[in-house]
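Repro:
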Amino acid sequence: LITHPHILLMLSVTILGYGSTFATFTYLSPILQEITKIEAQSVSFVLVAYGIAIAIGNHLGGKFGKISPIKSLLIVFIPQALILAIFHFTAESLYAGFATIIGMGLLAFMSVPLLQSYIMELAKRYVPHAVDLASSLNIASFNGGIAVGTGFGGYVIDHAGLIYTPIAAASMAAVAVVLVLISVKLDRHYRKA
């Protein structure tokens, strides 16, 4: 599994795409308090709304996965990169910021079932005897994404400021989009062969 380029590529997509959520989400409470100027006791309301949006997005991601997991990842990561970048500009506004956060929540975990489904598809294609291990590696990549996203967000805070974490997150999602496009191309070559 770990020697196959296409599988490694998609594990990288998991790390970057999923990690992009955490580059901002990890610091969402300070953003809300320091930039949006929400009272500390009201932050939990925003986080509950974000959580509900996550649950809806995760459900929708499972529905999209029935069509084509790899193409659906583009439908998720492109808007995710855009909405994360938009949050940089809406974070100071209570209503626009809240609407953007709901959009971020909808897209945050929508990729999870898609990534899991696609990595299983790749494992069946290239290394059929290691499908279970592929699933485990992808779950490890989700955790790696949390670490990478959180670390990158912290680095950006130290060097540019809290308001730039959405830009950092958007850049991670944008790189994930590029890697997904490469994977789409690899899929086409595989199908032709």
